[in-house]
Request: fold
Amino acid sequence: MLIDWFTIGAQTLNFLILVWLMKHFLYKPILHAIDEREKRISAELADADAKKAEAQKERDTFQLKNEEFDKQRTALLRKATDEAQAERHRLLEEARKAADTLSSKRQETLRNEIQNLHQIVSRWTQQEVFAIARKALKELATTSLEERLGEVFTRRLREMDGRTKEDLAKAIKTTSEPALVRSAFDLPAEQRTLIKNALNETFSAEIHVQFETSPDLISGIELTTNGQKIAWSISDYLASLEKGVEELLKEKYQPDIKEH
Reply:
């Protein structure tokens, strides 16, 4: 069998030309297209990964901010609650103090009113009792009683203690005015003479005396000179008794007032 080398050569050449043509016009465009597609896909995947990473980053940031907001909201809510509770306690404390102050003022007012009422009642009772006593003694006074009071007063002048006598002597020496003797009744001449003699003997000097009648003195006699006074009267005893009764009433009512 003879080999047709020309035919074989022609076919080989045709094959090589076909391969070259296919490679040049078919495979390269296809490969280029495939490469471009792969690059585009890779770029899209990279872009998708970047977007995904960005989205994840934004998601993480949003979650972090949301957590921070929750923390701030919780802290603000706790702070507002604490402040509201503190304000409530403050208002309650102020209300309690105001109530205590009002109660104290009312109690103080009540104590003062009770004390004033006791004082008014006590003072009125004293005034009425002693006014009646003075009136009764004035109506019961007689001439013989008044003469006896003159004798008692004379004896009192003679029996003055040292300090009273010294003060009265100094008062008499430092004034040019006569000593004034006042009585609730008109002293007889004999009584006036006895009083003058008692003064002269007591102070070893001639004492000028002026006599006056004063109805406001209840069965009593008094000697005044230059601010000094020596007296004896039933009124003095009443005044002393009245003062004692007043002190007793104060002692009686004072504990009751403190207890209210």
